[in-house]
From TrEMBL:
Biased composition (Low complexity): 30-49
Name assigned to this protein: Protease inhibitor Inh/omp19 family protein
Gene Ontology molecular function, alphabetical: peptidase inhibitor activity
Key words of the record: Cell outer membrane, Lipoprotein, Membrane, Palmitate, Protease inhibitor, Signal
Membrane topology: Lipid-anchor
Alkaline proteinase inhibitor/ Outer membrane lipoprotein Omp19 domain boundaries: 85-175
Signal peptide annotation: 1-24
SUPFAM superfamilies reported for this sequence: beta-Barrel protease inhibitors
Main subcellular location: membrane
Membrane keyword on record: yes
Originating species: Roseibium porphyridii
Localization per Swiss-Prot or TrEMBL: Cell outer membrane
Region described as Disordered: 29-83
Sequence similarity: Belongs to the rhizobiaceae omp19 lipoprotein family.
Amino acid sequence: MMRAGKFVLIVGLVVLTAACQRFSGNRNYAAPLPATPTTPVGTGTLDPLDPNAPPPGTTLTDPNAAPTDLASNPVAAPSDAKEVGRTDLLGGWKLSSSGDSCMAFMTLTTWSGGYRANTRGCATPALSGISAWDLNGNQVVLKDGSGAIVAQLYSSSPGQFNGQTSSGSAISLFR
């Protein structure tokens, strides 16, 4: 019985102390931040984030090459093309095409035309413009921000995808 009494006394003191600090007016809270002035939102077209980016819908890696319409003329699957699932593509990849080597990152965040992707360190506008990926059967499709197909690839071995860009160049995605 004595223990229960001590426990009730201690709990009562803690509650009383907390209540006194809370209502004493001597608060140790941070002062509120002043309101941030804002300007009205305007309308109009925005400049691209990358000043070297091609106009929307342009997916050429070679300025002298004629574009290939990969949407209506897809790259034929090689006979040794492997089945691929969405989780097989997640994470960081090395990307190589027409002498350009950079990194590609794939997520399962939904994005227009598939899932979110981005690249780092790509010199060519088409590769730096990759912003989405999707699967079409066992084919991996890389797309730009406007939804135009940049490249189509197939898995030839675990951790390796090979295919063709819209300009007809060979492209590889590997770990």
